[in-house]
Amino acid sequence: MSVPEEVRRRVEALRREIDHHNYLYYVLDQPEIPDAEYDRLMRELQELEARWPELVTSDSPTQRVGAQPREGFGEVRHEVPMLSLNNAFSDEEVHDFDRRVRERLGVDRVDYAAEPKLDGLAVSILYRNGVLERGATRGDGYTGEDITPNIRTIRSVPLRLRGGGWPPVLEVRGEVVMPKAGFEELNRRQREKGEKTFANPRNAAAGSLRQLDPRITAGRPLEFYCYGWGLVEGGVLPGRHSEVMARLREWGIRTNAEARVVHGVEGCLAYYRALQERRDDLPYEIDGVVYKVDRIDWQERLGYVARAPRWAVAHKFPAHEEMTRVLDIEVQVGRTGAVTPVARLEPVQVGGVTVSNATLHNEDEIKRLDVRIGDWVIVRRAGDVIPEIVSVVKSRRPKDARVFRMPEKCPVCGSRIVRLEGEAIARCTGGLFCRAQRREAIRHFASRRAMDIEGLGDKLVAQLDEKGLVRDVADIYSLRKEDLVALERMGEKSADNLLAAIEKSKSTTLARFLYALGIRQVGEATAQALAEHFGSLERLEQAGLEELEQVPDVGPVVAESIRAFFREPHNRQVIRRLLEAGIHWPAPRRQAGELPLAGKTFVLTGALSGMTRDEAKAALEERGARVTSSVSKKTDYVVVGADPGSKYDKALALGVPTLDEDAFRRLLEQASEPGARMPEA
Ligand code: IVH
Fold first, then answer.
1. Do residues 456 and 463 lie in contact, with contact meaning Cβ atoms separated by under 8 Å?
2. Using one digit for the tens of pLDDT, what is the confidence trace for 576-604?
3. What is the largest CA-CA distance in the chain?
4. Which terminus of the chain, N or C, has fewer Cβ atoms within 10 Å?
């Protein structure tokens, strides 16, 4: 059956509409419809093409991916060579460039097309009769690699041009970049999968574009920005660079929205400074600004020298990456006890800022980089991100370079440093005792949802710590009025108020108290669950991993963190002093499901000396147990008094545990304490 005419028309209409929305989204940066609607259009087109395969064309928006992996890349000769740019590193060098241009042209002032210099990979994209035919890398400028299937996966590259009037052969050139956000996300994903991460967005873009399997490229967040053109046949382009770029935009080619025409060298420098201000806010990395003589006839008069045009220059920003030496590696203790290795560097200017430290994240990262004390390294700083080490210059490694070892003891407080299984971060177990963690711990302890001590804010905590008045949270409860009034901005009245608030905080709940202790992994909800499960602090302190893991939401990691906290003698001591200071909470009232013997089944047999059978039954039921009359495998305990009956024999036969009267009494006693749980049978 041949394709019905209305299907043919619908397919064409869908393609036009999708292309139009791509144009609005990528070129004009003004999307009109939500993503979901766009997806619906795509799906409808895909369905129609699946049903009528003869309608599929290579420029259909559905045909971006699909190519199979290749053996290698073919070669592409650039008929118009892809040259490079001369650099200018100072205002003076830009002045020199402008002077040379004006002198050669014999003019007073030149208009320049100014635009960001994107830090990515140069590519050439050839359209024949408006349809994308070939995409290539720059290579050595004369010969590049054929990466057509990969280029096709980039959504901001149109598979066919919009409108009409384009030259039958039109080669556009530009930069493929990976936006900063996409780069961070890609590295996060790679790290999660245990695969290699990329040093910077440029490397990530290059690595993604040079994949033999275009399906991998398709999954990478790449974008294309056109900055010029190469081969043009059978058409005439306008006479200024800026006008050509505007025309390319109309044809659906994405150009950089930051591009401007500026007047003279002053215009160039003003543009440079304005863009430098915004450098960190741009979605992609730029390493400078490019100025191009706008008039193309003037470009032609200026011509080329060596492999760079005389009519353009790249005015570079201070680099985001520099080389320096690792003087030492130390560890820093953060407020949660996280122990982070930090490289102390020979100070170096990176992107206009002096960098003398770089984070090494964690032990695994040090191993991955194989960075040693004394090494030469590449440091990178981008935006507000903490400077980090990208790589080691192995060829420069000195003979005496030393391997770093994570300390076993916290350099601040001497407590053990532990690294839990499955965690990348090592932590100081010093908790409340560690000076580095103390201030934050005190603040957290006093915070509204913890002990709720009104008036004990940041500034006061800092003062109290400095003066040595509060070294740990227990010290809060020995503060005296005379200590307080001696502090800055602390009158009698505020001292009284603070002391009253401290006094009031003594009456709290177990859940708040546990949360206030700031145990790693124990947030408000977990503190509540622990309080409900254990009912008493003593029981929680003594609980083993297995029992901790019975608490809702407590897994092995949380359980181990709780154990580590209570194992640390300093923490136990602080807790004891807090309790001695008078912190207390009501014994929890229990709900049926939480009674100590809930879910346990008992059978009574024989006579007890101190109580009737009914009394014994009532005592068990009060504690949540069920009392039945016959023994089965499901019975948890058989209480055996004097002269027991056949139930005793049955219990022995089935292996059900039995309790004599003494054991029974001990059990009742235990199960009447708050938080008590029956030991497992
Ligand atoms: S114009 C003949 N404009 O910089 C000059 N290049 O160092 C053609 N680049 O290989 C280049 N942004 O990859 C031009 N706005 C821009 C650019 C740009 C980045 C790259 C391009 C080129 C290299 C030259």
1. no
2. 999 999 999 987 655 545 678 877 889 99
3. 124
4. N
Name 658's Cβ contacts closer than 8 Å, sequence gap at least 6: 637, 638, 639, 640, 648, 651, 652
CA-to-CA distance for 143 and 79, rounded, in angstroms?
9
For the entire predicted model, the pTM comes to 0.59
Centroid of ligand 1 to alpha carbon of 123 (angstroms)? 10
The whole-angstrom separation of Cα 227 and Cα 654 is 85
Q: Kindly list the distances between the CA atom of residue 629 and the CA atoms of 467, 605, 626, 671, in Å, as whole numbers in the listed order.
A: 68, 9, 10, 22
CB 517 within 8 A of CB 565: yes
Report the candidate in 328, 424, 340 with the shortest Cα–Cα distance to residue 371: 328
d(CA 525, ligand 1 centre) in Å: 55
Please tell me the distance from the alpha carbon of residue 49 to that of residue 252, in angstroms, as a whole number. Answer: 24
DSSP result, 341-367: EEEEEEEEEETTEEEEEEE--SHHHHH
Q: Look at residue 369 and give its three-state secondary structure.
A: helix
Tell me which residues are annotated as active site: 117
> Which atom in ligand 1 lies closest to the alpha carbon of residue 314?
7
> 681 alpha carbon to ligand 1 midpoint, in Å?
77
Residue appearing with tokens 């905080």? 505
- Residue with CA nearest ligand 1 atom 9: 117
User: Strand 308-309 vs strand 143-145: parallel, antiparallel, or unpaired?
Assistant: unpaired
Stated length of the chain:
681
